[in-house]
Specification:
alpha+beta; Immunoglobulin-like; 8-stranded parallel beta barrel
Length: 716
């Protein structure tokens, strides 16, 4: 390791631009000439400009031919002082991307007679492969030189069967050696200290045949967390908090109600979205119960998290267990969506990305500082060619190797439109109804507005659903103004907005809709983020009875399930999930985050109500209209003089057993009366009762009382 002391500094900021910084403490910042030196050549640098800064003098020198990266260069000044030429902002230029984009193999290729490794490190002067003995890396450590190839790729082949060995890379950049993990590694040792060489052919599973899915609106998403789902003492699951725990069937609660995966199937949802299962930081895999984390601290993007494995010390176990979990969920007819976090890394300075090609994988603001639109200190620069390639390769890996059915993109607004379009194309080429949804928030990252994968740019993002924050905030009240209440709680200010939300947010009742297709509107009132719906109600209505709080909760959840668009439920929402008032539970302990299966027993009537409403939605195509034209043709929504909302689905005989359905919604805290038109109606839903086949008949034209905070549904 070199001890680096620099009297002045030189950076390659473009392929033909060298920036030299002379501190005032060094020769008063003055030099009339500079010379570029390599092993054999000397070239005087023409000074293009000179600028006095606060602490140094900045010299810009322009050369005719691009600098060859990977070689060591020095800069001499007129005082015979020397400094190394460091890699600067050149890596963030288009010319760099054009010159060094590479589409060949990356990562590690294994056979039982050899391995080949490939690492993209165009700014490195040397790269070495390090191979360690399994589980005892301190006892055997081999260091093997790698060869630089075209496009800055380093490779080496080792003709041995190295299955089970640990590996890493040594990379020399800017005179500093760093030991790094392979960004493309697919297996790691416990706590992700080393990559592990494995044979993925030993882990293959057969994907089950799934029921057909024509449109995204035919989906019902259910979000959960591997650990939360089964960790509760009364979950009835043996391997609590683990991948294997999710696979256990016919488990029961304390009162013999279904729990776990069998309960999820019985509820009727179509897709389960798991919070991140890629390897993440801040949970010690050897002492799992001492910490908790949602998983938004990505470490190794293509490796399963070890804390969910029954034995994180065995690299194959976590791979096999996750694959078996996905397969078992799919065998129940439920598709699997993974929550993926390609917008940031846990710590930029510690990441392999930053050590291999410093400054390339992350965005920087106009002052040369890392941008922080994510709020965690770094933003992944998805618009750069090799960053985009990594994300696409990672998506392809999860599709092909783990055979998942979709992805939820955390903070998708950090990513760029082109990357998301290419992900959509990659998925479409597989022709497997892959779901893509994401958080299209407009965040403060240095991308042009039109380049961000946000709700505002949804027209450029066909086939990608977006979390509808307007739906969330107008139905339950603002997420960020805790005491603001939504229309489901009685706020009539949002009653006319509810017309637009019920109709898919496509512009039926607003001049400009949020979406140009109802398949893009992911409708929700609760997710893992922020307060649960129950906790929001508890905070806003501390004096109300539990019965009234439950009615508000039930109405808000029902609005999600009867709206045009794509319904999204948070696991346990159906039994009034609480986190005991904790707003951001990302590292709160299990008693806060766990699904409390005792609450399922306690609130079984509400669970049955939500289950029946899910069944009604799945049976009734009129609640799942898939185009703007269909919604315009079949949907009419009015606010009656007494503030009852009337939601009509007409001329729908071709879509199911009913010619017309009318939903009356009373968000007020008092009873209201409506006049049912004509005759021949049957009662589908009344207050908290959903009728299944044996529908009460409504005789003639008559008045009907709608209880407070409830809805009724009639059809004929």
């Amino acid at each position: 390791m070199l001890s680096i002391r620099r009297s002045f500094f030189a950076y390659l900021d473009e392929l033909t631009l060298i920036t030299i910084l002379l501190p005032y403490s060094y020769c008063e910042g003055e030099s009339s000439k500079f010379v570029l030196v390599d092993n054999q050549n000397r070239m005087e640098l023409p000074i293009q400009s000179k600028e006095k800064m606060q602490h140094f003098v900045k010299y810009s020198c322009r050369i005719k031919e691009p600098i060859q990266l990977g070689k060591r260069f020095e800069i001499e000044d007129e005082n015979n002082g020397k400094t190394d030429l460091q890699i600067g902002a050149v890596i963030r230029t288009k010319a760099f991307d054009d010159m060094y984009y590479y589409d060949g193999p990356l990562g590690l290729e294994y056979t039982n007679t050899s391995i080949k490794t490939f690492l993209w490190a165009p700014t490195a002067q040397q790269v070495k492969l390090v191979i360690n003995a399994p589980k005892a890396p301190e006892k055997e450590r081999r260091v093997i030189d790698m060869c630089r190839q075209d496009k800055g790729v380093w490779s080496v082949e080792v003709n041995e069967n190295l299955e089970g060995h640990y590996y890493s890379f040594l990379v020399l950049v800017n005179l500093e050696w760093s030991e790094v993990m392979d960004p493309y590694c697919v297996a790691v040792s416990v706590n992700g200290s080393f990559g592990v060489i494995v044979d993925l052919n030993k882990t293959k599973v057969q994907k089950p045949v799934l029921p057909p899915l024509k449109n995204t609106v035919d989906s019902i998403f259910y979000e959960t967390h591997i650990r939360d789902f089964t960790i509760h003492p009364e979950s009835g699951v043996q391997d609590k908090g683990k991948y294997k725990g999710v696979t256990e069937l016919n488990t029961r609660t304390k009162k013999e109600q279904l729990s776990g995966l069998s309960y999820m199937k019985d509820l009727g949802i179509t897709h389960v979205e798991f919070l991140p299962v890629h390897d993440f930081e801040e949970v010690d895999e050897l002492e799992v119960l001492k910490q908790y984390n949602w998983g938004y601290n990505p470490s190794h993007f293509n490796v399963p998290e070890g804390s969910y494995s029954c034995d994180p010390t065995e690299p194959y176990r976590r791979i096999n267990e996750l694959k078996e979990m996905i397969q078992t969920v799919q065998e129940q007819g439920i598709r699997v969506i993974l929550d993926v976090v390609y917008n940031h890394v846990y710590k930029k300075e510690a990441s392999s990305f930053e050590k291999i090609v410093p400054g390339y994988y992350f965005r920087y603001n106009q002052y040369g500082m890392p941008s922080n639109g994510t709020g965690v200190g770094n933003d992944i620069a998805s618009e750069r060619a090799m960053v985009r390639r990594f994300i696409l390769d990672s998506i392809r890996f999860w599709l092909e190797e783990y055979q998942v059915d979709g992805f939820r993109f955390d903070l998708m607004g950090i990513l760029d439109v082109t990357t998301m379009q290419q992900i959509r194309k990659l998925c479409d080429d597989r022709n497997e109804n892959i779901i893509l949804i994401g958080e299209g928030w407009d965040l403060a990252t240095p991308l042009q507005l039109q380049e961000k994968a946000t709700i505002m740019n949804q027209k450029e993002l066909d086939g990608i659903g977006q979390f509808n924050d307007q739906f969330r905030d107008k139905v339950k009240g603002s997420t960020f103004q805790l005491h603001d209440i939504g229309v489901a709680f009685g706020n009539l200010q949002y009653l006319h907005d509810l017309r637009e939300l019920l109709s898919g947010s496509i512009g039926l009742y607003h001049e400009k809709g949020m979406f140009n297709n109802p398949n893009k509107s992911v409708n929700y009132v609760e997710s893992h983020d922020n307060h649960t719906l129950w906790d929001k109600i508890e905070i806003c209505f501390p004096e109300e009875t539990n019965e009234k709080k439950q009615k508000m909760h039930r109405l808000a959840s029902a609005i999600v399930l009867i709206s045009q668009g794509v319904p999204f439920l948070h696991s346990g929402q159906e039994f009034f999930r609480t986190k005991y008032g904790i707003e951001n539970s990302y590292q709160s302990p299990d008693p806060i985050n766990q699904m409390d299966w005792n609450r399922k027993d306690q609130f079984i009537e509400n669970v049955q109500f939500i289950k029946n409403l899910i069944t009604l939605r799945k049976r009734t195509k009129a609640f799942r209209l898939s185009t703007v034209d269909e919604i315009v043709k079949h949907v009419t929504i009015d606010v009656l003089p007494n503030s009852i909302l009337e939601y009509q689905l007409q001329d729908i005989g071709e879509l199911g057993k009913w010619e017309t359905i009318i939903v009356y919604i009373n968000v007020q805290h008092h009873e209201e009366e409506i006049e049912i038109p004509e005759s021949g109606w049957k009662l589908l839903v009344s207050d908290d009762e959903i009728y299944d086949d044996h529908y009460p008949f409504i005789e003639g034209k008559q008045k009907w009382k709608i209880p407070p905070i409830s809805f009724m549904m009639i059809g004929k």
